[in-house]
Amino acid sequence: MPHTPSTDEIILESSYLIQEFLDQLSENLDQCESGAATDVDKGYLESNLRTLHSDKGAAAALGFTLIVEAIHQIEDMLISCQKGNSLQTETLFKYIDFLRSIIRISLDDSFSKSEYLQQYEQLRSSFRELRSLGQRVRMLVVDKSSTTVFVMKEEFKTLDVEIVLCSSGLDAINKVLHESFSIVVAGGQVRDLDGIALLAALRLNAETTSIKTVLITSLAAKDFSVKPDVVIGRTKSDISQLRNWVEASFFKDSEKKAG
């Protein structure tokens, strides 16, 4: 007869998995840091992107949402470097130190549950500040209307926001799983997967829950079982309101606006 593990055995096994993951993550961060300080080449970028993507999946499975979010930001920097931009090593090192802080408090048995949660909330607050350092906001727009896309591009010219276009819901899911985005804007009807189903999929995946979601539709927000962060129409005024929301949510001052 198969053995049914007790609660204590399950907790113990989970502790082993967490310990193993955090130890491996620490080693991977050391390699990422040492490589960035010496020679950043194609091999370094590809190797670290593979490793970090695996770490991100493991972090999501174990419920380390803040680790997932921080790795997203590092991936974004490495992908940007692959495209020919300079690697922001100072910001990279700050993210690595931030992740080490999470590892440290997660392995510290001296904390009570309330103390641990307090430490974790402090880290979450510092993460919001860290995310604003030199990181360009990337917005994935999934919509079949060329007119809406054109108006959106015009409205966002005065903000340092990279707009990435996609016409298929399934392609959009593939993009957010392999690239870093701050915002996903989806039309109500797009190929393969409608907008609300796409946004619901993002909410259900631990790796993408931190992404802000916007739905373009004429329906009221109360009509959705999974509510987007923002619901807008297609008028120029609606898109202008979206631009203002993005500015308020992601830009602390005017220094990050494009000239």
How do the helices and strands line up, and which of them pair or pack?
Blueprint: H1 7-38, H2 42-62, H3 65-82, H4 89-107, H5 113-131, E1 137-142, H6 146-155, E2 161-166, H7 169-178, E3 183-187, H8 195-204, E4 212-216, E5 230-232, H9 236-250
Parallel strand pairs: 1-2, 1-3, 3-4, 4-5
Helix pairs in contact: 1-2, 1-4, 2-3, 3-4, 4-5, 6-9, 7-8
Q: Any guess at the CATH architecture of the largest domain?
A: Up-down Bundle
Number of domains: 2
Query: What is the fold named in CATH at topology level of the largest domain?
Result: Four Helix Bundle (Hemerythrin (Met), subunit A)
Give the full name of the CATH homologous superfamily of the largest domain.
Answer: HPT domain
Shape: globular
Distance between the termini: 71 Å
Q: Can you tell me the CATH class of the largest domain? A: Mainly Alpha
Instruction: Summarize model confidence as the mean pLDDT.
Output: 83
Structural summary, described in words:
The chain is an alpha/beta fold and 259 residues long. The chain has 2 domains: 7-131, Four Helix Bundle (Hemerythrin (Met), subunit A); 137-256, Rossmann fold. The protein is built from 9 helices and 5 strands. A 5-stranded parallel sheet has the order 2-1-3-4-5, sandwiched between helices. Helix 6 (146-155) links the parallel strand 1 (137-142) and strand 2 (161-166). Helix 2 (42-62) packs antiparallel against helix 3. The longest helix has 32 residues, at 7-38. The chain is globular and about 55 Å long.
